């Protein structure tokens, strides 16, 4: 499927998602012109197949592949809920504090069961208890897929359970410095649950701030799909009128994400309330459409280059690549506050960025994809 065909089907996917979220029936004119196979492919890449299935079924259209995806999503949500209750019960028994994250809660705010498809469940836990948590997970029949390599450990269990147990919200590293610093004492931002001994939760405002930070990470790395816009709209439909937006904006400003949040929220509302999109809105939406849910390596490189070239207006690809390797002081201040405070160490930052290109495969592939995009477009 070429880019224009993909985009066309993505717009159909968005319209059907709007119908599902708002409880309306799709127009017959849209349904008569659907390319079922192409629509399914695009929905799968954005993990919106179950959502679109609900919209199709509301119009009396029950396609096997869509219905199967919806039923699998319902089943997986139920299984993950059941397994999470078992895990939290064991954390309570062992006296380990915890807090379920983002998707595990967001899915319950969608209109219908399974409408938000889940790839995994994330739980923030006491970082000092990771070895004990591993014993708990193994005792519950999980296998450990990854341990001690980052801030999260991954556990798998047949048939569909995937849990990421987080000792922190963002990994240490150059790009994540501002986010890691903001959440360095995350437990101080949490509120104790009333109905258990060791469970915690965010305020609605802090939940949203983390949600935006998480999406900003994916967006800045090269892509996050349309579902992130759905999440934002669903959250605001649930809590929007009661949110302290002044607090949210002031906190996001500390991580240089306030403008990102405003723009993303405005785009989400325009889409789901069917407002007219400006040319800038369409260009921004294109970035989400061509990213998939988390992007793919080739798309990430192209998206990163295309977005930055559009935003910064570079007249040559060489200038763009030099800035990627040697970020200007303004970017260092926003993204690498440690090096900004210790300017004599900035050459170490350059060395580390170069080393990532040489030794980290996914970074190298993304940079190569950026270079190829620049070369092909002769920027």
Commentary on this structure:
- This protein has 4 domains: 1-62, no CATH class; 72-201, Beta Polymerase, domain 2; 203-295, no CATH class; 301-376, no CATH class.
- Helix content is 61%, strand content 7%.
- It contains 19 helices and 7 strands.
- Strands 1-2-5-4-3 form a 5-stranded mixed sheet. Strands 6-7 form a two-stranded antiparallel ribbon.
- A hairpin with a 3-residue loop joins strand 4 and strand 5.
- The protein starts with a helix and ends with a helix.
Top keywords for this entry?
single chain, 379 residues, alpha+beta, Beta Polymerase, domain 2, 4 domains, 5-stranded mixed beta sheet, two-stranded antiparallel sheet, 19 helices, 7 strands, 7% strand
Short structural summary:
With 379 residues, the chain is α+β, with helices and mostly antiparallel strands. The chain contains 19 helices and 7 strands. It has a 5-stranded mixed sheet.
Low-pLDDT runs: 293-301
CATH topology description of the largest domain: Beta Polymerase, domain 2
Strand content: 5-15%
Largest sheet: 5 strands, mixed
Helix- and strand-based class? alpha+beta
Distance between the termini: 25 Å
Helix amount: 55-70%
CATH class of the largest domain: Alpha Beta
Number of strands: 7
Report the mean per-residue pLDDT as an integer: 86
Radius of gyration: 21 Å
Strand order in space, largest sheet: 1-2-5-4-3
The total number of structural domains is 4
Mind telling me which CATH architecture of the largest domain this is? 2-Layer Sandwich
What is the general shape? globular
Which H/E pattern describes the elements?
HHHHHEHEHEEEHEEHHHHHHHHHHH
Helix count?
19
């Amino acid at each position: 499927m070429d880019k224009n065909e993909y985009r066309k089907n993505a717009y159909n996917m968005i319209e059907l998602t709007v119908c599902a979220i708002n409880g309306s029936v799709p127009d017959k004119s849209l349904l008569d012109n659907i390319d079922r196979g192409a629509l399914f492919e695009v929905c799968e890449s954005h993990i919106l197949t179950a959502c679109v299935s609900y919209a199709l079924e509301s119009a009396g259209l029950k396609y096997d592949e869509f219905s199967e995806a919806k039923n699998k999503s319902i089943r997986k949500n139920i299984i993950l809920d059941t397994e999470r209750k078992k895990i939290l019960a064991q954390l309570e028994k062992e006296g380990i504090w915890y807090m379920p994250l983002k998707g595990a809660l967001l899915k319950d705010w969608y209109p219908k069961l399974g409408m938000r498809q889940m790839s995994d469940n994330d739980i923030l836990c006491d970082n000092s208890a990771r070895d004990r948590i591993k014993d708990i997970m193994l005792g519950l029949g999980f296998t450990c897929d990854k341990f001690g390599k980052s801030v999260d450990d991954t556990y798998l269990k047949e048939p569909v359970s995937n849990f990421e147990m987080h000792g922190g919200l963002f990994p240490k590293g150059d790009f994540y410095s501002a986010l890691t610093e903001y959440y360095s004492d995350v437990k101080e931002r949490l509120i104790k649950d009333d109905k258990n001994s060791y469970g915690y939760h965010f305020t609605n405002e802090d939940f949203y701030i983390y949600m935006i930070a998480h999406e900003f990470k994916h967006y800045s790395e090269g892509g996050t799909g349309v579902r992130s816009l759905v999440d934002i709209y669903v959250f605001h439909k649930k809590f929007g009128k009661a949110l302290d937006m002044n607090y949210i904006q002031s906190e996001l400003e500390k991580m240089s994400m306030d403008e990102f949040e405003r723009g993303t929220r405005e785009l989400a509302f325009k889409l789901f309330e069917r407002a007219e999109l400006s040319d800038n809105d369409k260009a921004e939406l294109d970035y989400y459409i061509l990213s998939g849910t988390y992007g793919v390596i080739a798309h990430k490189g192209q998206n990163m280059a295309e977005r930055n070239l559009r935003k910064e207006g570079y007249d040559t690809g060489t200038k763009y690549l030099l800035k990627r390797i040697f970020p200007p002081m303004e970017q260092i201040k926003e993204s690498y506050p440690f090096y900004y405070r210790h300017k004599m160490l900035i050459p170490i930052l350059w060395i580390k960025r170069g080393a990532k290109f040489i030794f980290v495969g996914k970074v190298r592939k993304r940079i190569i994809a950026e270079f190829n995009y620049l070369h092909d477009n002769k920027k």
